[in-house]
Design brief:
By secondary structure, the chain is mainly alpha-helical. The chain is 63% helix and 5% strand. A four-stranded parallel β-sheet has the order 4-2-5-6. The radius of gyration is 28 Å and the shape is globular.
Length: 588
């Protein structure tokens, strides 16, 4: 190495030292001096590009990386950084092509595999994301962020055990990844393991006291387990940290109706008039204003605010919700008509006895599940597991066929999933509840897979059910954010249930919500008899249980005794809904 090169190398080492000490300006000055002597000094160009990226000047970062690429087109580090600059500028396709070019030079380039995994995750392409992230952690098994992001992929495609393993591995490598603790808490909560969920959220908060998501999730966990005082405390902490985030007030309202004062109303209206207000605040602002209007019985104004709020909320998740609507209004029809399992002569050694509680939202399904599980015979409750609805389409994609395979293999797969959710035990005679409401789509397959299953169909006055859905933000149901799709979904449901009952009479137990709340003892006895379970007074004392939880909109109601709603509670809304319901005979 000649004298000039030694001098440049020494200067560059000084630039790196400044960079590591976050003296970015000094590092840049040194790099400029190096380039004034040798304009092809690629390390200086790369460092300038990195500093520009840190300063969020991605156009400049791209310029530096393109110059470096021109000097050394095979430099994978430069190429990878160029891909990242393009990604940050929104040029996703170009970024993907550049990352792939890196891998064409070096298939084991850790960062390129990682960046492709993260990019495909952002595009909701979980298959490719999973593939590249798995490759990343196989190449570098101490890459905490790669395990964390792989956990996110598994969680999104409902591979909960794999997701948990990845989050735990990420935390083992780096215990200070706040979001890993938070997301682990989300998983525990989904699996109804509330002690560990609460512990995970608290750990996240201990690492970062102003981590709003963890405060919010902790509030939800407390609410779902009936600890309303602590839930309010956590919601209020979230408001303290984000006073302009209207969603926090919306969730707090469930527990503290007094928050609907004039100051909050003024805050909401000011937010809605702000041109820079995001979709989430527009949605929750309109939802809250609807509550003000309901309070003073301005039903038309309430409905208009709800319509606007749901429109805003739908737009937040537009791509995802449109895909979900396509599935439940189009794709699932193919499964209902063509989905099948192959019967075999050898059956499973274990006789699983699930009780499926189906119906439309807000029809008393949570109440029914609590009654069934509160008698002398303890039953594990699944609430809305989503097991069937996630397994069947995934299996169809995996097989590239509407034939799910041999029925015993399908049953074993499902048994493992239910077991991992803590629902299958010999001591409870392998009996449990699954209250996933969309199971009505899969009734024919359920009958083939579980011949001994009990199916309960919960019904309610349709006006009451529709308005109760629309007045609540059922965030995960894509069709529940628009009155037209709500009516369409109801129509599908009625058609599917009636067709099934025509072909399979006496296999479904219809339970009318109004009958249950008017004659709880009589109706609950008939219900338990259908389930082959002993009735006991405790069935109606479900609200006294200390171990109950609920993630549903009925969480607060189930903590009190059964009570009658006024029959005309929703009658003021009928005239406003007639234009949506006039073409459906069941709404007249």
């Amino acid at each position: 190495m000649n004298k000039k090169n030694k001098s440049l190398r020494s200067s560059f080492i000084d630039a790196v030292k400044n960079y590591k000490e976050k003296n970015f300006k000094n590092a840049e000055i040194i790099c400029f001096k190096i380039l004034s002597i040798d304009s092809n000094y690629i390390d200086a160009l790369t460092l300038l590009g990195t500093i520009s990226a840190i300063n969020k000047n991605f156009e400049k970062a791209k310029e530096y990386m393109e110059t470096a690429f021109g000097i050394d087109p095979k430099n994978t580090g430069v190429l990878n950084n160029l891909g990242t600059a393009n990604k940050e500028l929104g040029k996703i396709d170009e970024a993907i092509n550049i990352y792939k070019k890196v891998l064409s030079i070096d298939p084991n380039h850790v960062n390129a595999n990682y960046n492709l995994g993260v990019t495909f995750y952002q595009l909701r392409d979980f298959k490719n994301s999973k593939s590249y992230l798995k490759k990343t952690v196989s190449l570098q098994d101490n890459y905490a962020l790669a395990f964390f992001n792989l956990g996110n992929v598994h969680a999104d495609i409902k591979e909960n055990q794999e997701a948990m393993s990845c989050y735990q591995k990420a935390i083992e490598i780096n215990p200070n990844i706040v979001m890993a603790h938070n997301n682990l808490g989300l998983l525990y909560r989904e699996m109804n393991d509330y002690p560990n969920a609460i512990k995970s959220y608290k750990t996240a908060i201990s690492l970062k006291s102003n981590h709003v998501n963890s405060h919010h999730n902790l509030a939800l966990a407390y609410k779902e387990t009936g600890n309303f005082d602590k839930s309010m405390e956590s919601h209020k902490q979230a408001i303290k940290l984000e006073p302009n985030n209207l969603s926090h007030y919306y969730y707090l309202f469930d527990l503290d109706k007094k928050i609907l004062d004039s100051d909050l109303k003024n805050k909401i209206k000011k937010s809605l008039l702000n041109q820079k207000t995001g979709l989430a605040n527009l949605a929750y602002g309109n939802y809250l204003l609807a509550k003000y209007e309901k309070k003073v019985k301005n039903y038309e104004s309430e409905l208009n605010y709800l319509i606007e709020g749901h429109k805003n909320f739908f737009d937040i998740y537009k791509d995802k919700f449109e895909a979900n609507n396509k599935y439940c209004f189009e794709d699932v029809n193919q499964i209902m008509t063509g989905g099948k399992v192959q019967k075999v002569s050898v059956e499973s050694d274990i006789e699983i006895n699930p009780i499926f509680i189906t119906g439309l939202p807000r029809t008393g399904t949570t109440l029914v599940e609590r009654i069934i599980s509160s008698g002398d015979k303890f039953l594990p409750i699944g609430e809305e597991t989503g097991v069937i609805g996630n397994y069947i389409p995934k299996k169809i994609l995996e097989n590239k066929s509407l034939n799910l395979g041999q029925v015993n293999e399908v049953r074993n797969d499902l048994q493992n999933i239910y077991k991992n959710r803590g629902l299958i035990f010999k001591k409870y005679d392998y009996t449990f509840t699954d209250k996933s409401l969309d199971n009505f789509f899969y009734l024919e397959l359920i009958k083939e897979i579980y011949p001994n299953a009990k199916i309960i169909n919960c019904r309610r006055n349709v006006l009451s059910s529709i308005m109760s859905i629309f007045q609540n933000n059922l965030i995960s149901l894509s069709w529940a954010h628009n009155l037209e799709t709500i009516f369409r979904y109801f129509d599908n449901y009625f058609s599917i249930i009636e067709n099934y009952k025509d072909v399979n009479p006496n296999e479904i137990y219809d339970l009318q919500f109004e009958d249950l709340i008017n004659n709880p003892e009589v109706e609950s006895k008939k219900l338990m008899d259908f389930c082959n379970l002993p009735w006991d007074k405790k069935c109606l004392d479900f609200y006294k249980r200390k171990d109950q939880f609920s993630k549903t909109a009925s969480n607060i109601q189930i903590r009190g005794a059964i009570y009658n709603n006024p029959e005309d509670k929703y009658s003021p809304y009928r005239s406003f809904l007639n234009e949506y319901g006039k073409k459906y005979s069941w709404f007249k």
